[in-house]
Design brief:
The complex is a heterodimer of chains A (about 190) and B (about 850).
Chain A (H helix, E strand, L loop, with lengths): L7 H12 L4 H25 L9 H10 L7 H31 L22 H14 L1 H12 L4 H8 L3 H20 L1
Helix pairs in contact in A: 1-2, 1-4, 2-3, 2-4, 3-4, 4-6, 5-6, 5-8, 6-8, 7-8
Chain B lengths: L2 H14 L4 H12 L3 H15 L10 H10 L7 E2 L2 E9 L3 E8 L4 E8 L1 H5 L1 H11 L10 E7 L2 E7 L3 E3 H4 L7 H19 L13 E4 L4 E3 L12 H9 L3 H8 L4 H4 L6 H17 L9 H10 L11 H10 L11 H21 L10 H23 L5 E5 L3 E2 L8 H15 L4 E3 L2 H4 L7 H9 L3 E9 L3 E10 L4 E11 L3 H15 L6 H8 L6 H14 L4 H17 L4 H14 L9 H18 L4 H13 L3 H14 L4 H13 L3 H14 L4 H13 L3 H14 L4 H13 L3 H14 L4 H14 L2 H14 L7 H10 L3 H14 L20 H9 L7
Parallel strand pairs in B: 10-12, 10-13, 11-13
Antiparallel strand pairs in B: 1-2, 2-3, 3-4, 4-6, 5-6, 7-8, 8-9, 13-14, 14-15
Classes of the chains: A mainly alpha (about 190), B alpha+beta (about 850).
């Protein structure tokens, strides 16, 4: 990959193009954002030993700062960027959970020892795969709520940021978040 | 849910949640009125909202970072028939992923090539095909080079270990460790050079150290050709890829820096650099810039080695790092020879105290002689040093080099006979046929060491004419892959049994095992066997081992013809007994167990009457007696079988079945674990581990065992079916049902599979689904045979005791195999309180089972 592909100018151009309705720009955007997220994560892991902890919002913010020429994009493009990033992060987590799951099912049999127990039932433990599936069901009758959860949970955005990205009031975000959360929890524990 | 319904629920919830509980209920009741669905929707949300714990409040950023860090661009993608998982390394030519071969479920490593690698893919493909011929325990095996629209990739052996760069401490390793590592590298290099393959990019970063200390050289023959002249190598290094090229630059031989082509001697140079790193932890040449480094390589002598390095290793080190390639060992074999001489020199010195290091000139002459002595010494020592732990042996199929050979049955047969007879020696642990014979080809040796962790391997070849047979047997030390003993035997064909006994006795002797008097006499029984009978017997075994209903029928024909010609040939009776037994089982069988059991029993007894010492006959008799509820005979015969051959995996597994039905859980688990030790790759055995654990009420371990079986073969229906049932027992209904549905598909709606699915539905509370299946099955049973065991299990699960006991009565009439598990099976706990069940236990002689 030649270096200029990830230059802010290039990403910004893609964002603008996509904002103008050029759908083909999206795939390229996704790839670039994904690669950037990976770079940030690896860099973070290298520094983790030094005692850094990552704030939930940091990944997506850092990706944005590194990828996009802020002087040139409009508010709308920025919202789109965060939307894309959250979507990608969701996909990564779900794929990861699936592959973990597959490994446990015995992709390499030596991995599964007799002492291998299922993880203990844990109230805090969220089954990402089940959450993802429930979120798909939710999207079928309430797309706005599903997006709120995607941005907040997978993207790590705050209430205010979510409101800004979605163009709705923070109060609406809080209400939608509360209800979606209650519904999802009921779905995951039924 | 419709959006309209949902917005109604949201509206009521949003208002209700602002009220305190007593008023809240009244509010919800008032707002919802008769609309039950609305009220339930709102109440569900309210309850969920009030539950403690911070559900999804924390964004999973740490998990994301972890996921991203192990993910590469291709994680989760498919390349060819490989599914890529986590990224395990990033290198010059591309990224390496852990992956699964979807055809075999085998774990492999996939190197995905960068654009540059892909550009070179035509050449690469050619070279990799060449490299994939390399088969050596110290070389990472290349399986294939593939190409798809995303570019080229290389599939190779997955290695779990540490890179040599990270494994060597800052001040190097001690001389003995360095020597043993150097020997392994030299073995790899010699092997490749012997096949005209040059590595070209040998360096520490291309060597992995496995957990057991074994070294593996990566990328043999796959290295990209470096630009042939100094200038381009250095100029590239000084531009973009400082790390990559500079890392390689340190290992480049002087002649390469002068623009000559790489050959075996430039690999020797690179080896010299690695040896220096091993001994000191640092490079022999250094420079602050690529130019300085190049200059040092061309002109400077290497840094001094520490004083503790033995003279022999210094000689090898200096030879490898000679500036003029003609002064170096010509190739890997010369290097290996020298290192082996060093090894024996050190040994000789240690043991005789005074033996000075012989000069370099004597190296070659010394090598041959001392090597043999050293090899001998090692084996003798090993044999005497490990009486506490049984020596484990794997016997490979013998190669049949006869002129007219229709199939491998004779070579397999000899190997199997050796497995049987070596198995009777108590201080040996002999892997069963099924586990050992997975490793059929030459690649076997490395895999055997790794996957079976066998100490010794027996292999050989044979040649037959009409009246003579000649067998060459070889004993190979699995850790060094070096033969430690070889012997050729020749006898007339009717003395094949005696010949096999000779081999077994000699192997035992070689391993320093003294045989008990009774074993000696068993092995001395020299019984002539008509070659025609023996041949029919071996052909029968060959078919029998395939374990399909068709091959079983052929096996019966062969064994019967052997018996017709010689009714006193006991092994044929024993084998025939087992055939009948197999034919009466649910899985491969085509006949009812009630019909087959008496025939199996008759043959087993016939076998024992002609030759009491055949373990297999006793095991079959025990098995039949067990399912005939003849507990005393079963117990006695199992113990006799295992006394005669403690390495008979199936007998351990069957005995475990017996013990579990008698409520002797701990013994049962111990027996089945023993079976798995002997036969870790047998689907029947591993599935039986699960089954025993399940009945021993250790569901999570049982689930793990079933998953192990499925990892060996995902299409093994029995394991998947039992896994489903066990998951349902622990409340994991969704996965249970998924497995059972899969089994229904895989068996085209087989009645056992459908019944299992119904039981899972019933356990999950999906009554209607369960009832529908059981209705269909009852209907189906009017036309075709349905095992009553599955029917009563399903009816009991549904709480329909009347029907359940009806089918149980039928099972009693048929003497179904399932009856013996009445006391043990966890699924039957729900009817244990019923007096009718108590009566059934009494009837089967199981009422005294704890």
């Amino acid at each position: 990959m030649s270096p200029d592909n990830t230059a802010p100018a290039h990403i910004t151009q893609l964002l603008i193009a996509w904002g103008q309705g050029h759908d083909e720009a999206l795939a390229e955007l996704m790839t670039q954002v994904y690669e950037e997220l990976r770079r940030i994560a690896s860099a973070h892991l290298r520094h983790e030993l030094a005692g850094h902890t990552l704030q939930p919002t940091a990944l997506v913010h850092e990706a944005y700062l590194r990828l996009v020429d802020q002087r040139r994009v409009k508010w709308r493009n920025r919202a789109q960027f965060y939307g894309i990033a959250a979507q990608i992060m969701r996909r990564i987590l779900v794929d990861h959970a699936r592959s973990q799951h597959a490994a446990k099912r015995g992709a390499g049999w030596e991995l599964v020892s007799l002492a291998d127990h299922d993880p203990p039932a844990d109230a805090e433990h969220v089954d990402v795969i089940a959450l993802d599936e429930a979120l798909l069901r939710l999207a079928a009758f309430d797309g706005q709520q599903s997006r709120v959860v995607e941005l907040r949970y997978f993207g790590g955005l705050t209430i205010e940021e979510t409101a800004e990205v979605m163009g709705i009031s923070p109060a609406t975000v809080v209400r939608e978040w509360t209800i979606a959360r209650a519904w999802l929890r009921a779905e995951l524990t039924k | 849910m419709t959006p309209e319904r949902w917005s109604a629920i949201k509206e009521v919830f949003a208002e209700a949640v602002t009220r305190e509980p007593p008023a809240r209920e009244a509010f919800v009741a008032a707002r919802c009125g008769d609309d039950v669905e609305l009220r339930e929707g709102v109440e569900r949300l309210l309850a969920s909202d009030a539950a403690p714990g911070g559900f999804i409040d924390e964004s999973p950023v740490q998990g994301l970072v972890a996921a991203l860090a192990v993910r590469g661009r291709f994680s989760g993608a498919a390349r060819g028939c490989y599914r890529l998982g986590r990224r395990v390394a990033t290198g010059g030519m591309g990224e390496v992923y852990e992956a699964t071969d979807t055809r075999t479920a085998q774990r492999v490593a996939i190197k995905v090539l960068t654009e540059e690698g892909t550009q070179a893919s035509a050449r690469l493909k050619r070279e990799a095909e060449h490299a994939s011929e390399l088969d050596h325990p110290n070389i990472c095996t290349v399986y294939e080079v593939g190409e798809d629209q995303a570019g080229a990739y290389i599939a190779m052996e997955f290695l779990d270990g540490t890179n040599l760069v990270d494994a060597v401490p800052a001040d190097g390793v001690d001389s003995a460790t360095a020597l043993s590592m150097a020997l392994q590298l030299a073995e790899a290099i010699a092997h490749a050079h012997g096949r005209n393959i040059v590595h070209r990019d040998l360096k520490s970063a291309n060597v992995m150290v496995l957990a057991d200390g074994r070294l593996k050289v990566l990328d043999f023959g796959l290295a990209r050709r470096l630009p042939g002249d100094v200038e381009s190598a250095v100029s590239v290094a000084s531009l973009t890829e400082v790390g990559v090229i500079a890392g390689t630059l340190s290992y480049l031989a002087p002649e390469l820096l002068k623009g000559e082509r790489a050959d075996s001697r430039s690999d020797i140079w690179a080896f010299g650099i690695i040896l220096h790193e091993l001994l000191t932890g640092r490079q022999p040449f250094e420079g602050r810039t690529p130019f300085e480094l190049t200059s040092a390589i061309l002109r400077e002598p290497p840094f001094d080695l520490p004083s503790h390095v033995p003279a022999g290793l210094r000689v090898v080190h200096d030879n490898c790092l000679a500036k003029d390639p003609t002064d170096r060992y010509h190739d890997g074999s010369g290097l290996l020879e020298a290192l082996r001489a060093v090894q024996s020199g050190i040994r000789v010195r240690r043991h005789t105290k005074s033996r000075s290091w012989l000069g370099r000139a004597a190296l070659g002459a010394l090598a041959g002689a001392t090597l043999l002595a050293a090899g001998w010494w090692a084996v003798r020592e090993q044999a005497h040093a490990i009486p506490s732990r049984p020596i484990s042996i794997a016997v490979l199929p013998f190669r049949d080099a006869s002129v007219a050979t229709e199939t491998g049955y004779f070579g397999d047969g000899v190997a199997e006979a050796l497995i049987d007879r070596l198995g009777t020696i108590e201080s040996l642990r002999v892997f069963s046929r099924e586990s050992a014979m997975r490793f059929r080809d030459e690649q076997a040796l490395a895999a055997i060491k790794r996957e079976l962790s066998a100490d010794m391997v027996v292999r050989g070849s044979l040649r037959r004419t009409t009246d003579r047979i000649r067998v060459t047997a070889e004993l190979v030390d699995a850790s060094t892959i070096r033969p430690v003993w070889q012997q050729t035997y020749e006898r007339s064909t009717n003395e094949i049994l005696a010949l096999e006994n000779d081999i077994v006795r000699d192997i035992a002797d070689r391993l320093g095992i003294s045989l008990s008097a009774s074993r000696q006499s068993t092995l001395r029984v020299v019984r002539a066997v008509d070659p025609v009978v023996y041949e029919a017997y071996l052909k029968g075994r060959f078919q029998w081992n395939k374990r399909t209903s068709a091959s079983l029928e052929q096996a019966v024909t062969f064994f019967t013809s052997a018996i017709e010609r010689d009714p006193t040939y006991a092994p044929a009776h024993a084998a025939l007994a087992d055939c009948y037994n197999q034919q009466g089982t649910v899985l491969v069988g085509t006949a009812s167990p009630v019909d087959m059991r008496p025939r199996a029993k008759a043959e087993a007894i016939a076998s024992i009457q002609t030759d009491e010492s055949l373990a297999e006959a006793h095991a079959t008799l025990a098995y039949v007696s067990h399912y005939d509820w003849d507990w005393a005979t079963a117990d006695r015969e199992f113990r006799r079988a295992l006394e005669l051959n403690p390495n008979l995996a199936l007998a351990h597994a069957w005995y475990s079945n017996y013990l579990i039905t008698r409520g002797r859980r701990d013994e049962a688990v111990a027996e089945v674990r023993r079976a798995e030790e002997i036969d870790p790759f047998s689907l029947v055995v591993v599935t039986n581990v699960g089954w025993t654990l399940s009945n021993a009420r250790r569901p999570h371990e049982a689930i793990a065992a079933y998953r192990r079986a499925l990892a060996i073969d995902p299409s093994y229906v029995q394991a998947r079916m039992r896994l489903g049932s066990e998951l349902a027992n622990v409340g994991q209904f969704d996965e249970a049902i998924r497995h059972h549905q899969q089994v229904v598909d895989m068996t085209n709606g087989g009645p056992v599979a459908r019944a299992s699915l119904a039981q899972s539905y019933a356990k999950a509370g999906r009554r209607a689904d369960a009832e529908e299946i059981v209705r269909n099955l009852a209907e189906f049973s009017r036309q075709r045979y349905v095992s009553p065991v599955n029917m009563y299990l399903t009816y009991f699960q549904l709480g329909d005791r009347e029907k359940g006991f009806e089918w149980l009565a039928r099972a009693f009439r048929e003497r179904s195999n399932g009856i013996v598990y009445l006391a043990a099976e966890p699924s039957l706990d729900i009817v244990r309180d019923d007096p009718r069940f108590q009566r059934a236990l009494i009837q089967a002689g199981l009422s005294n089972v704890p």
